[in-house]
């Protein structure tokens, strides 16, 4: 997986880029505006969201699937002054904006902020409705990537993306294969009231923050072998999983609040919600996080119990898990959830091996 912000440019190229940004900043500062200036991408924590995660586009999607592209574009143009309704990523994006507001209060010239990018394969003709909807809700989203029917995955690295959220499992798999943290978003069956003052992010452990190496032991050899394996390798850190770098990016922003003695008022809170047992297999997880220099605010070891009821109490803006039955249980109880299609768990459902389609010769 990639680091927080890879940087392999030469010094002369970096210098030219710095000059370009300095000129852009000066031009922006001369334009009197109440809107905050977008942060420099290499300093930001960049969250790329698809239009179907940011907004509820079920009706529009149905037109596209049943009547084709031309009818879909015509419908969007005819209704471009009607704001789209919020989608599953909407509360998450609002919470990111709140964190930015508080960071700017503490660090007025700070550029270590969340930067939200709309990453969509929509055609540019649909862009007016998307822009109107973003302005209607007063969202701070200035950077767009509209690829006109082509996959946007190739642009994720160019936008220095730290996290990509989509409704398309295929695109998410492609992003993870490229080393980018990504997940497929699901809309909960019921709505919960979420915090307006604190961004809450909940992570599963194995195959999300960590690799699936321990989960492979469980699936192939059973729990007793897993417990023995974890005890034996307790002091050996687990390999990183696809969302480790996103937790790292959150931690970087949390430390900016801690540096101003604002730990108790930090507007970012992270949760580990794992099916692991604490006594039998929890120590390796906590020692791995420590070895990475990362903190998790709350760690919940459920020993195989359902995650949904605990997540109801946490009320995260987003919950990441690699197994669909945990996602289904969470969404049934009102939690906005995101599936991370990674690791051996994709071959199983509720502990049973899913029959894999035969590969074509």
From TrEMBL:
Return the InterPro entries for the record.
Answer: 5-nucleotidase
* GO molecular function ontology, one term from the record: magnesium ion binding
Compositionally biased intervals (Basic and acidic residues): 1-12
Per the record, where are the segments of Low complexity compositional bias? Answer: 22-33
Q: Which GO terms describe its biological process?
A: adenosine metabolic process; nucleotide metabolic process
Query: Do you know which Pfam families this protein is assigned to?
Result: 5-nucleotidase
Coiled-coil region(s): none
Region Disordered: what ranges?
1-43
Domain of life, per the record? Eukaryota
Give any Gene Ontology cellular component. cytosol
Task: Name it.
Answer: 5'-nucleotidase, cytosolic IB b
Species of origin reads Maylandia zebra
